[in-house]
Amino acid sequence: MTGSKTYSFFLGCVMPNRFPNAEKSIRTVMPELGYELEDLQGASCCPAPGVIRSFNEPTWLALASRNIALAEMAGHDLTTGCNGCYGTFKEALHIVHENPERLKEVQKVLKKSGIKYKGEADAKHILELILEVPPEEFKKKIKRPLDGLKVAVHYGCHLLKPSKLRPWEKTQRHSFLDNLVELTGAKSVKYKDKYMCCGAGGGVRGSNAPVSVDIAKEKLDNMMDAEADVLLNACSFCHLQFEFSQAQLNKEMGETKYKLPVIYVTQLLGLAMGLDPDELGLHKHVVSTQDILDRILE
Predict the structure, then answer these.
(1) What is the pLDDT of residues 135-161, one digit of tens each?
(2) Is-above-0.90 flag for pTM?
(3) Cβ atoms of residues 271 and 146 within 8 Å
(4) Staple 178 to which of 47, 188, 216, 241, CB 3.0 to 4.6 Å?
(5) Which domains does the chain carry?
(6) Does the pLDDT at position 49 exceed 90?
(7) What count of Cα atoms within 13 Å lies in the side-chain half-sphere of residue 22?
(8) What does 170-196 look like in DSSP terms, one character per residue?
(9) What are the distances in angstroms from CA 21 to CA 15, 64, 155, 284?
């Protein structure tokens, strides 16, 4: 199925329920890059690799495989904009590809619901699709260069690890997202502990919010020390962590110290491509993006 320009779009739980603005930016930008996204009908939670898998791995594998099977039955590979969902699908595919007996177990479970699954569909992060566009072709789409904008890039854990199940270069210092940012004319700034976790994953935000927020605070402080104008991410759960943690920190402190705009990758790309900020959902953020928009659109 690889090679098609049409993909089954897996939303996940967080994006449609908390950040439909980020979802809108994906739906707006990807067709401009030559991709058609079809909603994955009947999809469920991915489910999260750090939670459900820890309690019942066979159930986790069957549910993850069911979502991939729905894309397979639609004749497409699957794509998602959430690192956690991406991690689940990549790891589930690895299991069924390397262990034929596990594939048979999953097929037996899914057959009860009338779902056929061969394990042939792939799962890709939207970044994989974006990066398939040659840089020289992408540059032609830049209508509003983001010159002077300083961006703190956050990759997120599940996007990169485990590296053996990811398509990126095997390195501890990835640069593909930084390079993409700089194609827009913006500058990707260096900051301390750039590849550190946002603090939300593995059930930490749900089970120990103070620790989770403290980890986010450390990253935010490092980005602010680097004088970043915006924080860029490619994961709806990381997006939630950085937006909501800033609001929580400000409330606890009784002042508005944390006001670093959190921008989803397709929002930034769409801005540089000259698309309408409203169509990219840039006016619907917990941390206001208005100052940044005023600078870019003046």
Answers:
(1) 999 999 999 999 999 999 999 999 999
(2) yes
(3) yes
(4) 188
(5) 6-126 (1.20.1050.140), 135-297 (3.40.50.11810)
(6) no
(7) 29
(8) S-SS--HHHHHHHHTT-EE---TTTTS
(9) 8, 25, 20, 6
